[in-house]
Every structure is written in structure tokens, then in C-alpha cells.
Design goal:
Layout (H helix, E strand, L loop, with lengths): L1 H35 L3 E5 L9 E10 L5 E7 L5 E8 L10 E5 L7 E7 L9 E12 L6 E6 L6 E3 L10 E3 L1 E3 L27
Parallel strand pairs: 1-10
Antiparallel strand pairs: 1-2, 2-7, 3-6, 3-8, 3-9, 4-7, 5-6, 8-11
Length: 203
């Protein structure tokens, strides 16, 4: 009887050990999945260029489905781009339920603070969401300039419906050109070639 009891205890310990091992693997898997869950906020300029007198940058969110609020500061070179205005993107409700706050006190030096929040307890559905459009005029022509995210005056944050920061969120900058495209050079051949009457000329 004592032997059978010891055998049963050993079996229970083995089963418990296996259960703990499986639980540990499941926790690790979920932790790893959470680490890869990265909502991404990006700056998108058509053709990566503003080659006319004015242009715009779209701020998009690659949402996972649990994002309620996004905040950031957009920065650019004021010698290249001049801020004109900003407006809600096409993916944001226009019924007044969203909060759209802008800090425009530093736009002359190339900074715009933005805080955009949905109604409390709600979130964006998964997918690409157009949050904000920022309009510029071109101040100078350069081959390459950067529009970037920084934390001052408004910190970069993505927050879920429970007011908890999503720490895996990624903010992606954009490098664009403001130089107009180079016009093609057309050369006619031959140049200043005499053609004898009745002869052939190739063009």
C-alpha cells in the first residue's frame, strides 16, 4: 500500500511538472506575440516628394484594433517647408466625438504637436488608418529633407481604450525631396551635317 501511494505521488509530480512546463511555454509564446504586436505611426508623402509650390503629409496608423489615442510632435526643416494647416484624416469620425488638439506655437521653427483621441472606451479597427493631414508650402528646393517624429512639445504615445500606453508602438519618419524633377535632354542627330541632293540622312 505504501509503495502504491509513493508510485501515485510520483505520477502526480510528473503530471504537475508537465503542466508547469506547458504553462511556461504558453506564457512565453503569448509574451513573444505581444512583443511583436507593434502599432506603427508613419509619415506618408505621395511620391516621397513635394515638387510644386505646396504639398501635404499624411499621418497614418497601422492599427492592431486596440488603439484609442495617438499623440506626437512632427518636426521638419523650416528652411525647406513652411507649415500651412492641419486637418483630421479620413479615418477619424467627424461627428465631434474625437478630440483633436494641436500645438502650433512652434510651427515657425518646424514643430507641430498633435493629440488625437477617439471617444472614451472605443478604438480603431485593425488596418491602415489616415489620422491627420499636414499641409506645407515649399520654401526651398533640396534633394533630400526629413519629416520626423519627436517628443517635444507633445510626446509620442499610442494609448489603448483603458488609458494604458502601448509601449511597443513604432513611429516611422519620412525622407522626401522638394526639388522639381529634372527635365529630359533631347538631342537631335545629326547636327550641322550637309546632305547631298539625292542622298540619305538618318535622324
Amino acid at each position: 500500500l505504501v509503495f502504491q501511494h509513493a508510485k501515485k505521488n510520483k505520477k502526480n509530480l510528473i503530471m504537475k511538472s508537465r503542466f508547469l512546463r506547458i504553462s511556461s511555454l504558453l506564457v512565453a509564446a503569448f509574451t513573444s506575440a505581444a512583443a511583436w504586436a507593434q502599432p506603427t505611426v508613419s509619415i506618408n508623402v505621395a511620391g516621397n516628394a513635394i515638387t510644386t509650390a505646396s504639398g501635404s503629409a499624411a499621418i497614418n496608423l497601422a492599427a492592431l484594433g486596440n488603439e484609442n489615442t495617438v499623440s506626437f510632435t512632427l518636426t521638419w526643416d523650416p528652411a525647406v517647408l513652411t507649415y500651412v494647416s492641419s486637418a483630421l484624416g479620413a479615418s477619424v469620425p467627424t461627428d465631434g466625438s474625437a478630440t483633436f488638439t494641436r500645438n502650433t506655437t512652434q510651427t515657425a521653427t518646424g514643430k507641430l504637436g498633435v493629440l488625437l483621441g477617439l471617444e472614451a472606451g472605443t478604438s480603431y479597427s485593425a488596418g491602415t488608418k489616415h489620422l491627420v493631414t499636414v499641409n506645407f508650402t515649399r520654401a526651398s528646393e533640396v534633394a533630400s529633407t526629413t519629416i520626423a517624429f519627436v517628443d517635444t512639445p507633445t510626446a509620442r504615445r499610442v494609448i489603448d481604450p483603458n488609458a494604458v500606453a502601448i509601449t511597443t508602438a513604432v513611429f516611422t519618419d519620412a525622407t522626401i525631396s522638394t526639388a522639381p524633377p529634372t527635365a529630359p535632354t533631347i538631342t537631335a542627330h545629326p547636327q550641322n551635317v550637309a546632305v547631298v541632293a539625292g542622298g540619305l540622312a538618318m535622324f
